[in-house]
Write a structure and sequence with these properties.
By secondary structure, the protein is of the alpha/beta class. The chain has a domain of about 160 residues: D-Maltodextrin-Binding Protein, domain 2 (3-Layer(aba) Sandwich), CATH 3.40.190.10. The protein is about 45% helix and about 15% strand. It has 13 helices and ten strands. Helix 1 packs parallel to helix 2. It is globular, with a radius of gyration of 20 Å. It starts with 10 loop residues before the first helix and ends in a 23-residue tail after the last helix.
Length: about 325
């Protein structure tokens, strides 16, 4: 019988996640309503952004850069987006593709890259699929629907592989598939369990024309927020970058934040650390934007198959250019 992937969240692990998130929220403290430089960040329990925020707090980078961070726990991607839309939080996690779509619809969010660590298509240990060209069905139940950029990138590469065939194979979605498109943290854990990495979105983007590793996730906020909170916005980005420099070089810091990572297995811990470090953005915003524009042109026709018109180009303002350190 085909092995069907389901996330292995035990009740014990789920409780550990809640406790770790609660501890982080308590550590940062509630957001003082009178402090102009307080930043309310709405995050899911399993977001890697929690690791970086804890590094900011522990190393007092928030005080150094004149900000106060308040973590506001969210239960789902949709509740986080609703919280941002209503003004209940200032920042959430998101991707440039979603931000561009929102801007096209009149919701003027913008993004600062967080990490380029790539989602991946993982084949179960008993799967006979050995390459992307052999894939016919895929489980995308754990990404943000059929319009997720990860899914569209995979579909674009699949079509590219089969474009010269007389009868191209149509990649379809199925919850019973033996290949699963998952985020980079889940992919790392599955790899340790014996799953095989069939394809990753960073290499797909490169194959389709991107010149570097594109940001998979970023800090998303409304463009009006930094206009009224410029000191806080600039301070937050600088604290974020400094925290990444610490994580890039300090093994001791990784050992300290390990309880936040749900990485009891040493192999999982080592791979998560390696993938995070490799995913730290190192390019200019101009370079990120140039790649996003090229990829956007390729993904537009695929989105149209889902009755979504992305427009001819990425929406202006998708990447935040208001930071003085952003070339």
């Amino acid at each position: 019988m085909k092995k069907i992937f389901r996330p292995r969240y035990s009740r014990t692990r789920s409780n550990r996640v809640r406790l770790a998130l609660l501890g982080l929220a308590i550590a940062f403290g509630p957001a003082p309503s009178s402090a102009n430089d307080t930043i309310r960040i709405g995050l899911l329990p399993d977001s890697a952004m929690h690791w970086e925020l804890d590094v900011i707090r522990h190393n007092k980078l928030d005080a150094k850069h004149g900000i106060h961070i308040g973590v506001v726990p969210q239960t789902s991607v949709q509740t986080a987006r609703s919280a941002l839309a209503s003004g209940a939080v200032d920042i959430i996690s998101g991707d440039w593709f979603w931000v561009s779509r929102q801007r096209a619809a009149g919701r003027y969010y913008t993004l600062v890259p967080f990490l380029t660590a790539a989602s991946a298509a993982m084949a179960s240990p008993d799967s006979t699929v050995a390459s992307l060209s052999a894939m016919k069905a895929l489980d995308i139940s754990h990404v943000d629907g059929a319009l997720a950029p990860q899914w569209l990138l995979l579909k674009a590469q699949h079509q590219s592989i089969h474009k010269s065939h007389a009868a191209p194979v149509t990649l379809r979605t199925s919850r019973d598939a033996d290949v699963h498109l998952v985020d980079w943290r889940t992919a790392t854990r599955l790899e340790v369990e014996g799953y095989r990495r069939i394809s990753a979105t960073d290499t797909i983007a490169s194959d389709l024309g991107a010149e570097g590793r594109m940001p998979e996730t970023g800090y998303v906020f409304h463009e009006e927020w930094p206009r009224g909170n410029r000191r806080a916005a600039i301070g937050f980005v600088r604290a974020s970058r400094e925290a990444k420099r610490i994580l890039k070089s300090s093994d001791d810091e990784w050992a300290r934040i390990r309880p936040l990572m749900n990485a009891a297995d040493d192999r999982v811990f080592a791979l998560l650390k390696e993938r995070f470090r490799n995913g730290i953005p190192g390019r200019t915003i101009s370079d990120e934007l140039a790649d996003a524009e090229d990829i956007h042109i390729l993904l537009g026709p695929l989105a149209a198959e889902h009755d979504v018109n992305l427009g001819a180009a990425i929406s202006p303002g998708t990447f935040w250019r208001g930071h003085p350190d952003n070339p």
